[in-house]
């Protein structure tokens, strides 16, 4: 299984990659008011008008009945531990805020795991700096004998916070595998583009793979292709967007390398960009311009450039 | 409209489950699995009417990752869709298409390479972002809280260690699970506390792997296989997203999914020969067994000495290829029903297959099988 033909074991370190995802989260009315009131050090809950059940922190829907007519309330800062665990993030507990009908989760502070018990009374610990986040309450601490608080109508509620900026960074280490591994090794070591023979059509599949997509038969032996090819499609990119590698305008083209049955996407440069769509079009002959870097990535080819008429004939 | 047609599992194939397939890409694992499945089934890709696959964009590190895997899956210019749940859901989707008469042969694939990403971030991305994620609530915390609730129902930390040790012993005998040395009960019971009262081995170990299953309508299935394994019931259900609002100590969504499957199959779970279940922690596995009706609440531990063969594969604790775990349970149950002697089973007739997903097992899918 997974043996690429004529290949020594590939031992490339994995490809490190990070996906940085920016978000603008919309909290909605209930969470929006909760977050807006956090700076006033008021805990906001919500009572379902039809069921009478109270959620703290505030929710837009009743967790039990799904009722959507909710009136906001001000919740007390005391409650009871209903469950607890300890992870690398600290002590996390389920809590029942006094007057609420549902549990919530939060941190337990200033206590060791062993002194906690279910039923223990707790009180909120407010952050010193005001913040429009659930972390305005840093956590809860043990408060033996704390009187049981009551839920009250919320007077003069703040406008809901309309948006919360957020981002998520996801980190990856992708394996290359025997086929991509060999291809990138050849690019980095020998500046050679290598694919595998298709068993369905006469030509090379790039990137190489175990199975031919179209015929679903096992692919054949390795096949080197030159770094020249023909543009089959192109686009001039004018739009700016997140994650972009180059400043517009630039050309992305589908290039069919000579001898390949697949197309490679790369940029085409070295031309007068004001005449881009005239100078680069389907059928235009191009050749790779290699960068000085030898990292074993497709970016070792800096870009492709058009081959001037007559150049190829002269070199033959 | 006629009655739904019978649907059978006719063949399965899988890779070995390893903590990391560091010398293979997703496509390498997928193409080798699917090629082997077609060889086992003795058919070509032209015979396959549709492909349904399961995987996670967040785990895979690319959007709509199935689009990049189409060629390896054999889905070129075929009807293909992706289920962003465990592969067992994909199997129920495929079985429904065949039962409805819309297709004859369906290829179900699930793949996972959690070794390439950070599993804690995968779960964190599923947590509610305003009230829960900032305080550090995650899948680990949910599992720890769940285990504490289960102890209040009658379970014990000692049971968790025994369940975990048994799972690893079973997995060590499973040729598809790569294990260097199974931890002893003592090592498990004294392991690092990761989500009190759960210790390291009591949480499911993420592994890489791929599994593929071929489903067929009744007539075709009888022609393809001398031992078709019939899908007799299916059910799935989802609990409240907010963990603290779920019923403590019970998995009500699992109970609902099982009820739907048993009603369709006319199956009394206590008569089942085999159960292959996916618990994301030792406590979770016990709670699943109870929710499936294999024991009374709080007595899940007794199930292992009962008449139903539980997780002969080892289950999810030693090998959890997230998104493929439940479909592997289906492949395991299929092997046990068709090769009972290999597993020391007399003449098994029925199996219960279970998959779970989400933070603290929010979602559940149950499939019943019969021969």
TrEMBL record, chain A:
Residues 222-290 form the ChsH2 C-terminal OB-fold domain. It comes from the Bacteria. SUPFAM superfamilies: Nucleic acid-binding proteins. Pfam families: OB_ChsH2_C. Gene3D superfamilies: 6.10.30.10. This is ChsH2 C-terminal OB-fold domain-containing protein.
From TrEMBL, chain B:
Gene3D superfamilies: 3.40.47.10. InterPro entries: Thiolase, Thiolase-like, Thiolase_C_2. It comes from the Bacteria. Residues 246-367 form the Thiolase C-terminal domain. GO terms for molecular function: acetyl-CoA C-acyltransferase activity. PANTHER family: ACETYL-COA C-ACETYLTRANSFERASE, NON-SPECIFIC LIPID-TRANSFER PROTEIN-LIKE 2. This is 3-ketoacyl-CoA thiolase.
């Amino acid at each position: 299984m997974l043996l690429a033909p004529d290949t020594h074991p590939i031992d490339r370190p994995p490809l490190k990659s990070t996906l940085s995802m920016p978000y603008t989260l919309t909290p909605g009315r209930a969470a929006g008011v909760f977050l807006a009131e956090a700076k006033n050090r008021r805990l906001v809950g919500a009572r379902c008008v039809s069921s009478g059940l109270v959620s703290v922190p505030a929710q837009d829907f009743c967790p039990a009945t799904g009722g959507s007519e909710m009136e906001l309330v001000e919740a007390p800062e005391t409650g009871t531990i209903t469950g607890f665990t300890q992870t690398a993030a600290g002590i996390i507990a389920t809590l029942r805020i006094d007057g609420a009908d549902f549990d919530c989760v939060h941190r337990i502070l200033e206590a060791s795991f062993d002194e906690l018990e279910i039923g223990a009374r707790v009180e909120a610990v407010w952050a010193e700096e005001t913040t429009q986040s659930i972390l305005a309450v840093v956590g809860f601490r043990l408060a033996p004998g704390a009187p049981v608080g009551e839920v009250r109508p919320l007077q003069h509620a703040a406008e809901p916070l309309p948006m919360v900026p957020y981002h998520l960074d996801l980190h990856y280490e992708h394996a290359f595998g025997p086929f991509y591994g060999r291809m990138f090794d050849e690019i980095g070591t020998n500046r050679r583009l290598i694919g595998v023979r298709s068993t369905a059509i006469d030509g090379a599949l790039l990137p190489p793979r175990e199975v031919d997509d179209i015929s679903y038969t096992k692919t054949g032996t390795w096949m080197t292709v030159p770094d020249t090819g023909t543009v089959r499609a192109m686009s001039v990119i004018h739009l700016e967007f997140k994650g972009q590698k180059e400043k517009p305008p630039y050309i992305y083209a589908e290039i069919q390398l000579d001898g390949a049955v697949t197309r490679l996407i790369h940029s085409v440069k070295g031309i007068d960009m004001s005449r881009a769509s005239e100078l680069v079009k389907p059928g235009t002959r191009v050749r790779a311009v290699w960068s000085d870097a030898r990292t074993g990535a497709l970016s070792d080819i800096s870009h492709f450039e058009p081959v001037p008429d007559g150049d190829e004939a002269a070199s033959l | 409209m006629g009655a739904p047609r019978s649907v059978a599992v006719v063949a399965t194939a899988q890779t070995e489950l390893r903590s990391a397939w560091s010398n293979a890409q997703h496509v390498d694992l997928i193409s080798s699995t699917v090629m082997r499945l077609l060889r086992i089934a003795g058919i070509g890709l032209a015979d396959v009417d549709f492909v349904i696959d399961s995987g996670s964009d967040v785990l895979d590190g690319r959007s709509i990752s199935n689009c990049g895997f189409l060629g390896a899956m054999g889905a070129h210019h075929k009807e293909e869709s992706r289920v962003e749940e465990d592969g067992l859901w994909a199997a129920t989707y495929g079985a429904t298409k065949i039962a409805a008469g819309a297709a004859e042969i369906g290829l179900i694939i699930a793949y996972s390479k959690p070794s390439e990403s950070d599993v804690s971030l995968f779960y964190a991305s599923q947590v509610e972002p305003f009230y829960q994620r900032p305080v550090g609530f995650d899948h680990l915390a949910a599992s720890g809280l769940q285990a504490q609730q289960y102890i209040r129902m009658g379970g014990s930390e000692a049971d968790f260690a025994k369940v975990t040790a048994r799972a690893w012993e079973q997995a060590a005998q499973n040729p598809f699970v790569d294990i260097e040395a199974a931890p002893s009960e003592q090592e498990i019971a004294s392991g690092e506390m990761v989500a009190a009262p759960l210790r390291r081995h009591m949480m499911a170990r993420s592994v890489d792997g791929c599994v593929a299953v071929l489903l067929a309508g009744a007539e075709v299935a009888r022609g393809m296989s001398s031992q078709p394994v019939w899908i007799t019931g299916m059910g799935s259900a989802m609990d409240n997203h907010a963990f603290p609002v779920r019923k403590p100590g019970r998995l009500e969504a699992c109970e609902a999914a099982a009820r739907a499957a048993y009603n369709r199959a006319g199956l009394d779970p206590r008569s089942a020969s085999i159960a292959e279940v996916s618990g994301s922690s030792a406590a979770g596995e016990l709670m699943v067994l109870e929710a499936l009706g294999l024991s009374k609440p709080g007595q899940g531990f007794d199930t292992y000495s009962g008449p139903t063969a539980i997780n002969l594969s080892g289950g999810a604790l030693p090998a959890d290829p997230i998104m493929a775990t439940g479909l592997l349970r289906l492949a395991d149950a299929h092997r046990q029903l068709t090769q009972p002697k290999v597993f020391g089973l007399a003449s098994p007739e029925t199996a219960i297959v279970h998959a779970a997903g989400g933070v603290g097992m929010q979602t559940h899918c149950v499939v019943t099988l019969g021969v």
